[in-house]
Write a structure and sequence with these properties.
- The complex is a heterodimer of chains A (531) and B (248).
- With 531 residues, chain A is of the alpha+beta class.
- Helix content of chain A is 56%, strand content 15%.
- In chain A, helix 14 runs antiparallel to helix 18 and helix 16 crosses helix 18.
- With 248 residues, chain B is an alpha/beta fold.
- Chain B has an eight-stranded mixed beta sheet, with helices on both faces.
- In chain B, a hairpin with a 5-residue loop joins strand 3 and strand 4.
- Classes of the chains: A alpha+beta (531), B alpha/beta (248).
- At the A-B interface, strand 5 and helix 4 of A face strand 3 of B.
C-alpha cells in the first residue's frame, strides 16, 4: 500500500487563506486545490456508511471500508475498501446490501484480501457521514499523476460538520512530488497532521462504540506484590469477558465467543496459579464457577470450529465430493444454532448472573469472598512468585515434551498441549512483569509448538465429531454420496492430523534449543535469592 | 504471482494494446498488477505517461545492481504499476548473453517483487531471440495476438514450431492465441479467422476488434478501457481477460 499523509483542518471559512474571503465556509479548504496547483478530478457529494470488524482490524491497517452512495445518483451505490484514497477493492452493490461475514463480500482479488483480513469477524457499521469529496491530482510536465489528493468535508447525519480531512497519497516512484506537497500543506494555516480517518472523526464526534481488542491489555507494576498483580490481571480478564459478553450472547461472530472463552480460561489458569496468593476457599469457589462457565461454552465453540473449518474441508475434496457434502454444511449450521440457543439460555440464567455478581464484588474488594484472609504469598514480589511458576511450567513442558516419541499415544500430546497452554497463559497474563525481548523469544517457539499440538487435537476431535454426525445423517436417510463424501473429509482430517504429528518433533526441537532455554532462564532468574 | 507475456514474432499486431488494456482491466478488478515494458520503443510506457528511463539501464536491473522495486513507477490507476522501458533494452540480448543462466534471468529479476503483485504483464518486442527465450522461461502464459492475415498466421506457425522444437525452454508455458485487430467487415479476415479456428480449436474465442477507439489511446495516453470503458474494444478486453483467467 502506498504511503499516505493525512491532515486535519478546521471547518472555518479562512482555512489556509488567513482571512475570511468567502461566505462558503469550505471555500478556503477547497481552494487548496488551485492554490497548490493541483488538477481537480471531481467533486462529489456522498452518503457514506463505514464498516469495521469489532476489533477494528481495518482501522488498525489505516484502511476504511464503506458503502458509498452518490447523493445525486443513489443507484450508483458501491462498496469500497480504501487506503488513503487508493482503491484496494470496489464493487457495485444494491440497496439491500449489508456487509457482514466474509461470505457476504463481493468476488474479486481485492475482496479476497479483505476476506483474509477480517477472517471470521463480522463487519459492523461504525459511522455514517455525508461527505463532499474533492479528488485532485498533482501532475508532472507529461501530465502524469505524481500524487493524489483527497479533500473530505464530512458532516454527521444530523448536519454537525466534522473537521475537514486532507489526504495525500504518494505514487510509487514520485515520492519527491508528494514530499513537496506535504511540505506546502503542512505550512498552511489551520491545517495539522493527523493519523485519523473520516470514520475515526465521526466515531469520536458521534460517540461510536470503541473497538474490542482481542489482545489482553494489562498494565502491571514490576515492583508490585502478588495480590495486587493477581487482582490487576483478573480485572483485565474480567473487562475482556464483559466486552465480549453481548457479542457472544447475540452470536455476532464466532470470535466474540472465542475471546470470551479465552478470558474465562485465562481466569481459570490465573486462579489455578494463585495457590498461596489467594484465599484457598475463594479460589476453589471461583475455579468451580469459571469451570462451569467454560464448560457451557464448549459445545458452541466446537460447532463454530466445525463451521469455520468447513470451507477448508471442501477445498480438500473433489468438486463432486464437495457438492455431495452440502447436507453436512446445512447440518452444521443447524447444529451451531441449537448449541448457541442453549448457550444463550445458560448465559442469561441465574447461575451466570450470580457468578458475575460475586466476581465483580470480589474484584472490587467487597462481598463475603473478599473479606476472607489472603494467602501467605500475597505480599511477596509478584515477579518472583510468577517466575517460580514459569520455571516450573517450563521444566514440566520440556520434560514431558522430550518423553514424546513416534509411538507415544495421542493422549500424551493432548496432555502436553495443556502443559503448553499453562505456560503460555502465565507468560501472556503476567507478561508486563518481564523484559519484552526475552518474553518474545520465549513465546514465539511456544506458540509454534502449540499450533501443531492444536492442529493434532482439533483434527482428531473433528474427525470424531464428523463420524458421529455421519451416523446421524445416515439415520435421517442422507444420500449415500453425502456419507461417502464425509468419509473423504474424515480421511482428509486424518491426513492433517498425521502431518501435525510428524511436525511435532521439529517444533518441539525449536522450542527446546539453548537460546530459548536461556531466555526462560533470564525470565526466571529474579526468583534466585528471593523470599 | 502469475507472469503473462504479450508476444508475437511479428510486430504491429496489438501486443502493446493488449498488455496495456488487460493490465488495466485486471487492476480495476482489484488485482495488483505490474506491467514491464520490455520493448525499447517504450509504447506501453508512453501510454502511461511514464518516462522511459531506468537508472543504470537494463544491465543494472538484470545484474541486480539496481533493485527492481526502485525502478517501478505507479501509474495513474490504482493497483497498476509500470516498470518502464529503457532505450538500453535494445541490447537486452547482449546483456542476457553475458549474464549467468540467461534464460532464468528475467524471472529472477521479478522474484523480489513476487509478493507485491498478483499479475505481471511483460510487453515484449517482436522477435525470436535470447530475450524472448528468457521471456518464455519466465512466463506462465504467452498471450499471442494474431491478425487474421496470411502473414500473421505464418508467424503463429513459426512460434508453434519453436515451442515444439524447444520443450526445455518453454516447459509448462501456456500459449493463448487470440484474434486481434480483426475487421469483421473484411471478407478475408472472416474467412481466415474461420479457417484458422477450424485448424486450431485451442484459440481463445474472444477477438479484439479493429477500432478507432484503440488508436485514440495514443492521443489521450490512456488505456482504452479507462478512456471508453463501455466501448466495443473495452468490452472485448474484459471478455478476453475472463477467458484468460479460465485458462490459467
Amino acid at each position: 500500500m502506498s504511503e499516505v499523509h493525512r491532515f486535519v483542518a478546521d471547518r472555518s471559512p479562512d482555512v489556509g487563506t488567513g482571512e475570511n474571503t468567502d461566505a462558503d465556509t469550505d471555500a478556503g479548504t477547497l481552494s487548496l486545490v488551485t492554490r497548490l496547483g493541483l488538477r481537480e478530478v471531481e467533486v462529489t457529494d456522498l452518503d457514506r456508511r463505514f464498516f469495521d470488524t469489532p476489533d477494528g482490524r481495518l482501522h488498525g491497517m489505516g484502511t476504511t471500508l464503506e458503502v458509498r452512495t452518490p447523493v445525486e445518483y443513489p443507484m450508483m451505490r458501491s462498496l469500497v475498501w480504501l487506503h488513503g484514497g487508493q482503491v484496494l477493492a470496489s464493487a457495485r452493490v444494491d440497496a439491500a446490501f449489508e456487509p457482514g461475514l466474509a461470505d457476504t463480500l463481493p468476488p474479486g482479488a481485492g475482496f479476497d484480501r479483505l476476506r483474509d483480513t477480517i477472517e471470521m469477524r463480522r463487519l459492523l457499521p461504525v459511522a455514517m457521514v455525508r461527505s463532499r469529496l474533492a479528488l485532485a491530482a498533482a501532475l508532472d510536465t507529461e501530465e502524469k499523476t505524481t500524487a493524489r489528493v483527497v479533500i473530505d468535508l464530512p458532516a454527521l447525519r444530523d448536519g454537525r460538520p466534522l473537521p475537514a480531512l486532507i489526504e495525500i497519497r504518494a505514487i510509487r516512484g514520485y515520492e519527491d512530488a508528494t514530499a513537496r506537497l506535504v511540505r506546502r500543506i503542512a505550512g498552511t494555516a489551520g491545517v495539522d497532521p493527523t493519523d485519523l480517518t473520516t470514520p475515526d472523526l465521526a466515531r469520536a464526534a458521534g460517540g461510536g462504540r470503541p473497538f474490542v481488542p482481542s489482545r489482553l491489555t494489562v498494565q502491571l507494576d514490576r515492583g508490585a506484590d502478588a495480590a495486587t498483580v493477581w487482582t490487576e490481571v483478573f480485572r483485565a480478564l474480567h473487562e475482556s469477558m464483559l466486552v465480549n459478553f453481548t457479542g457472544t450472547l447475540d452470536d455476532v461472530d464466532s470470535e466474540y465467543l472465542h475471546d470470551f472463552r479465552v478470558a474465562v480460561r485465562r481466569t481459570r489458569s490465573v486462579l489455578a496459579e494463585g495457590g498461596g496468593v489467594l484465599d484457598g476457599r475463594a479460589r476453589d469457589h471461583f475455579r468451580a464457577g469459571f469451570k462451569w462457565l467454560g464448560d457451557i461454552t464448549t459445545p458452541t465453540r466446537d460447532a463454530d470450529v466445525h463451521l469455520l473449518d468447513y470451507p477448508k474441508m471442501l477445498a480438500a475434496l473433489s468438486e463432486d465430493a464437495a457438492t455431495a457434502l452440502a447436507p453436512l454444511g446445512e447440518f452444521l449450521i443447524a447444529h451451531q444454532r441449537t448449541c448457541q440457543q442453549q448457550l444463550a439460555r445458560e448465559l442469561r440464567g441465574p447461575r451466570r448472573a450470580q457468578l458475575a455478581a460475586e466476581w465483580a464484588e470480589y474484584l472490587e474488594g467487597s462481598g463475603p469472598w473478599a473479606e476472607r484472609p489472603a494467602g501467605p504469598d500475597a505480599g511477596r514480589s509478584a515477579r518472583r512468585v510468577v517466575a517460580a511458576r514459569v520455571e516450573k511450567a517450563h521444566r514440566r513442558l520440556r520434560r514431558d515434551g522430550r518423553a514424546i516419541g513416534a509411538t507415544s499415544p495421542p493422549v500424551a500430546l493432548h496432555d502436553l498441549r495443556k502443559d503448553a497452554k499453562r505456560l503460555r497463559y502465565l507468560l501472556e497474563c503476567f507478561g508486563p512483569l518481564f523484559p519484552a525481548e526475552d518474553l518474545a523469544t520465549a513465546v514465539r517457539p511456544l506458540k509454534a509448538l502449540q499450533e501443531v499440538l492444536g492442529e493434532f487435537q482439533d483434527t482428531e476431535v473433528q474427525a470424531g465429531a464428523l463420524a458421529r454426525f455421519g451416523r446421524r445423517l445416515d439415520e435421517e436417510g442422507a444420500d449415500t454420496d453425502t456419507i461417502l463424501a464425509m468419509g473423504g473429509a474424515i480421511e482428509q482430517l486424518s491426513v492433517r492430523s498425521s502431518r501435525a504429528r510428524r511436525a511435532y518433533a521439529d517444533r518441539f526441537a525449536e522450542f527446546d534449543t539453548g537460546a530459548v532455554r536461556r531466555a526462560y532462564e533470564r525470565l526466571t532468574t529474579t526468583r534466585k535469592g528471593g523470599r | 504471482m502469475k507472469i503473462l507475456a504479450t508476444y508475437n514474432i511479428k510486430g504491429g499486431v496489438g501486443k502493446t494494446a493488449t498488455a496495456v488494456n488487460l493490465a488495466h482491466v485486471a487492476a480495476r478488478r482489484g488485482e495488483r498488477v505490474l506491467l514491464w515494458d520490455l520493448d525499447p520503443q517504450g509504447a506501453a510506457t508512453f501510454y502511461f505517461r511514464v518516462k522511459p528511463k531506468v537508472k543504470g539501464g537494463g544491465e543494472a536491473l538484470l545484474s541486480g545492481r539496481r533493485e527492481v522495486s526502485d525502478a517501478i513507477r505507479g501509474s495513474d490507476y490504482d493497483n497498476l504499476d509500470i516498470l518502464p522501458a529503457d532505450f538500453s533494452y535494445r541490447h537486452l540480448d547482449l546483456m542476457l548473453d553475458e549474464a549467468k543462466k540467461p534464460l532464468a534471468r528475467l524471472r529472477r529479476v521479478l522474484r523480489s517483487v513476487s509478493e507485491d503483485y498478483d499479475y505481471v504483464f511483460l510487453d515484449c518486442a517482436p522477435s525470436i531471440s535470447l530475450t524472448s527465450e528468457s521471456v518464455f522461461r519466465a512466463a506462465d502464459a504467452l498471450l499471442v495476438p494474431v491478425i487474421p492475415t496470411t502473414l500473421s498466421i505464418r508467424t503463429f506457425d513459426q512460434l508453434d514450431r519453436f515451442v515444439d522444437d524447444n520443450p526445455d525452454i518453454v516447459r509448462k508455458l501456456k500459449i493463448l492465441g487470440f484474434f486481434s485487430m480483426a475487421d469483421t467487415r473484411k471478407r478475408l479476415h472472416r474467412e481466415l479467422a474461420d479457417e484458422l479456428r477450424a485448424q486450431r480449436p485451442e484459440l481463445l474465442t474472444t477477438q479484439i476488434p479493429m477500432d478507432t477507439d484503440i488508436e485514440r489511446m495514443g492521443v489521450h495516453r490512456q488505456p482504452v478501457t479507462a478512456l471508453f470503458p463501455r466501448s466495443r474494444p473495452s468490452r472485448a478486453y474484459e471478455a478476453l481477460w475472463d477467458e484468460i483467467l479460465a485458462h490459467l
